[in-house]
Amino acid sequence: MLKIAIVEDEEIIRMGLAYTVDWQSMGAQVVGEAADGLEGLEIVAAASPDVVLTDIRMPRMNGLDMAKVLAEQHPAVKVVFLTSYADFEYARQAVRLNVFDYLLKPVDEGELAKLVARLHEEKRHQEADSEADGHGAEKMAEPVGKEGLVDWQDLLAQEGLNAYVRQVLEKIQAEYASRLSIEDCAESMQVSTSYLSRKLKESTCHTFGELLARYRLQEALKLLEDGRYKVYEVAEHTGFGEYKNFCQVFKKYLQVSPKRYMQEREQKSLEIAR
Fold first, then answer.
1. Per-block average pLDDT, block size 10, for the chain (274 residues)?
2. Are the C-beta atoms of residues 67 and 90 closer than 8 Å to each other?
3. What is the model's pLDDT at position 146?
4. Taking the CB of the first residue and of the last residue of the chain, which one, N or C, has fewer CB atoms within 10 A?
5. Buried b / exposed e across 78-103, counting CB within 10 Å, b at 16+?
6. Which among 256, 252, 266, 271 is positioned nearest to 135, based on CA atoms?
7. Checking phi first, is residue 250 left (phi over 0); if not, alpha (psi -120 to 50) or beta?
């Protein structure tokens, strides 16, 4: 069953989606409702939905800002924007960042059903990947996958590296354990987010989120290998926050869970000791 959270400040729309849509026939259920992005984040933390349906324009915290926080703290949660024609182009641009898709208001139940079917398929693929990872320890030849990381020194040593890109890389190095966003970086450098995003991609072949996640993982591996910290402590020390979020990002980039990674390292250490 696909778990859905609805975040919409217009009560009549929110109630209509929650209580008049035949979610059960789509293999879904509504696990929470919220009137703005801040409440939406609380619902996500409490109910762990698979999908958040959210309006863009809302008081206190809008849908875009909530989606950015979800991308950092709950990357497995799929975000779908509910948008009017007035915000249509805005929504299309946002989809290119980290949002799964968008639906026009008033929501057509047929279009909603098609979207939910795609979300089910996406969830099945993720579960299949997780299961394969659980049975695929043989995939690890070396202590996990530096191919899932980024050589920071190589990036910084590039000739003619854009000055703004260099500042972002250095900021990630210095502040990776705190909450960082490309919007904050762009604002501090007094450049547009779109410009900074484009230059990062051109120079590194990665987005800001990918670079931040990979650097955090690089530091997380050092702490795991140190052996003094539990996995959830490593997650907290490296900016991932929740243990669940850490595991999801770890498996996304390194194709193995933190637990399996530690088991493989222990096994390799025993073999060397013999």
1. 91 89 91 90 89 88 84 82 68 58 82 88 66 43 52 84 90 90 87 85 87 90 82 87 83 82 70 58
2. no
3. 53
4. C
5. bbbbbbeeebeeebeebeebbbbebb
6. 256
7. alpha
Give the whole-angstrom CA distance, residue 235 versus residue 59.
Answer: 31
The residue type at 72? E
One-letter amino acid for residue 161 of the chain: L
Tally Cβ neighbours within 10 Å of residue 35. Answer: 18
Cα gap 60→73, rounded to integer Å: 19
Structure token pair of residue 33: 């409702």
Helix (H) or strand (E) holding 184: helix 182-189
3-state secondary structure 70-104: HHHHCCCCEEEEEECHHHHHHHHHHHCCCCCEEEE
Q: Phi and psi (nearest 5°) for 206?
A: -135, 155
Cα–Cα distance measured from residue 16 to residue 117, given in angstroms and rounded to the nearest whole number: 20
Q: How much is the pLDDT for 175?
A: 92
